[in-house]
């Protein structure tokens, strides 16, 4: 069977055009920032919710209850019958200060990194640069130098979060509406739990870095020799896993409202125990490695 050259040329041209469009679409997807997609989807959800409510569009009965429960809070929810299982996810306006407290701490940490970057020309932490690259799609090198507008935006956002926190705690007067279990959480329970989670992740990350120094990419043990640790919080202290251990017990004390003398004695024991172990390990590293960073502390960054 003989194929005409003209027909073959047309088919090849169309194939190349289709392939080119596929590559163009793939390139466009690569340049779409994840953070933009997230905010767009959130806005879209609320647009749909607004029109459903504004024009009294009814969903199937079970979905309608869930929908009404999701869009309402506070006084607008008083006449809505809510299944018991959905009450678990209710958060009263009285508890909004938890959100602002977390915002103040998190944005304060980011602001500190940005100030050090702009004023002292220090690079942002690797984990933050990787997160920004993943969320925005911008190259990692683009985050090595921050613009003043970014710093100003962070300052304004932190001021806003701090002001709203103060308003929730000292200005607003909330009605006494009985709430579910989540509404009984106190600020110290929330902070203690968050600190526990973060310290646990820090300890796991630190131990993983230590393990990688003795294994290859497949996880097979290559050597049992001691090497100079680096990366993560090892750039600040010799034993971040010991610091994380202390923070885990400190977080449990915070969850108790910092009022248990017995648990504070437990924290004191862990502090002394881990500090001694960290100092011994720190001195070993310094004696074994001549190029060991002199600014690195043993246990607590910039202190001990």
Automatic annotation (TrEMBL):
<dbReference type="GO" id="GO:0006488">
    <property type="term" value="P:dolichol-linked oligosaccharide biosynthetic process"/>
</dbReference>
<dbReference type="GO" id="GO:0047751">
    <property type="term" value="F:3-oxo-5-alpha-steroid 4-dehydrogenase (NADP+) activity"/>
</dbReference>
<dbReference type="GO" id="GO:0016095">
    <property type="term" value="P:polyprenol catabolic process"/>
</dbReference>
<keyword id="KW-0256">Endoplasmic reticulum</keyword>
<dbReference type="InterPro" id="IPR039698">
    <property type="entry name" value="Dfg10/SRD5A3"/>
</dbReference>
<feature type="domain" description="3-oxo-5-alpha-steroid 4-dehydrogenase C-terminal">
    <location>
        <begin position="170"/>
        <end position="304"/>
    </location>
</feature>
<feature type="transmembrane region" description="Helical">
    <location>
        <begin position="246"/>
        <end position="271"/>
    </location>
</feature>
<protein>
    <recommendedName>
        <fullName>Polyprenal reductase</fullName>
        <ecNumber>1.3.1.22</ecNumber>
        <ecNumber>1.3.1.94</ecNumber>
    </recommendedName>
</protein>
<dbReference type="GO" id="GO:0102389">
    <property type="term" value="F:polyprenol reductase activity"/>
</dbReference>
<keyword id="KW-0521">NADP</keyword>
<feature type="transmembrane region" description="Helical">
    <location>
        <begin position="186"/>
        <end position="204"/>
    </location>
</feature>
<keyword id="KW-0472">Membrane</keyword>
<feature type="transmembrane region" description="Helical">
    <location>
        <begin position="31"/>
        <end position="53"/>
    </location>
</feature>
<keyword id="KW-0560">Oxidoreductase</keyword>
<keyword id="KW-1133">Transmembrane helix</keyword>
<dbReference type="GO" id="GO:0005789">
    <property type="term" value="C:endoplasmic reticulum membrane"/>
</dbReference>
<dbReference type="GO" id="GO:0160198">
    <property type="term" value="F:polyprenal reductase activity"/>
</dbReference>
<keyword id="KW-0812">Transmembrane</keyword>
<comment type="pathway">
    <text>Protein modification; protein glycosylation.</text>
</comment>
<dbReference type="InterPro" id="IPR001104">
    <property type="entry name" value="3-oxo-5_a-steroid_4-DH_C"/>
</dbReference>
<comment type="function">
    <text>Plays a key role in early steps of protein N-linked glycosylation by being involved in the conversion of polyprenol into dolichol. Acts as a polyprenal reductase that mediates the reduction of polyprenal into dolichal in a NADP-dependent mechanism. Dolichols are required for the synthesis of dolichol-linked monosaccharides and the oligosaccharide precursor used for N-glycosylation. Also able to convert testosterone (T) into 5-alpha-dihydrotestosterone (DHT).</text>
</comment>
<feature type="transmembrane region" description="Helical">
    <location>
        <begin position="97"/>
        <end position="115"/>
    </location>
</feature>
<comment type="similarity">
    <text>Belongs to the steroid 5-alpha reductase family. Polyprenal reductase subfamily.</text>
</comment>
<dbReference type="Pfam" id="PF02544">
    <property type="entry name" value="Steroid_dh"/>
</dbReference>
């Amino acid at each position: 069977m003989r194929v005409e050259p003209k027909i073959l040329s047309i088919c090849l041209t169309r194939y190349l055009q289709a392939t080119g469009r596929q590559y163009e679409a793939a390139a466009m997807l690569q340049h779409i920032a994840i953070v933009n997609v997230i905010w767009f989807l959130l806005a879209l959800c609320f647009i749909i919710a607004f029109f459903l409510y504004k024009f009294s569009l009814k969903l199937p009965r079970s979905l309608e209850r869930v929908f009404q429960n999701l869009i309402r809070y506070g006084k607008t929810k008083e006449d809505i019958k809510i299944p018991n299982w959905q009450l678990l996810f209710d958060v009263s306006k009285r508890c909004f200060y938890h959100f602002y407290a977390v915002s103040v701490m998190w944005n304060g940490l980011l602001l500190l990194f940005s100030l050090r970057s702009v004023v002292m020309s220090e690079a942002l932490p690797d984990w933050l640069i990787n997160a920004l690259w993943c969320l925005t799609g911008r190259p990692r090198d683009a985050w090595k130098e921050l613009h003043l507008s970014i710093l100003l935006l962070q300052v304004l956002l932190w001021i806003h979060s701090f002001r709203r926190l103060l308003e929730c705690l000292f200005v607003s007067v909330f009605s006494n509406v009985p709430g579910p279990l989540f509404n009984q959480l106190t600020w110290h329970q929330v902070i203690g739990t968050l600190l526990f989670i973060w310290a646990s992740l820090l300890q796991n990350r630190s131990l993983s870095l230590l393990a990688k120094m003795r294994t290859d990419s497949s996880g097979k043990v290559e050597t049992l020799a001691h090497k100079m640790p680096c990366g993560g919080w090892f750039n600040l202290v010799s034993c971040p896993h010991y610091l994380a251990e202390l923070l885990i017990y400190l977080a449990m004390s915070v969850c108790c409202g910092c009022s248990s003398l017995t648990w504070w004695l437990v924290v004191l024991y862990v502090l002394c125990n881990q500090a001694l172990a960290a100092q011994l390990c720190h001195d070993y590293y310094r004696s074994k490695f001549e190029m060991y960073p002199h600014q690195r502390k043993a246990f607590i960054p910039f202190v001990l």
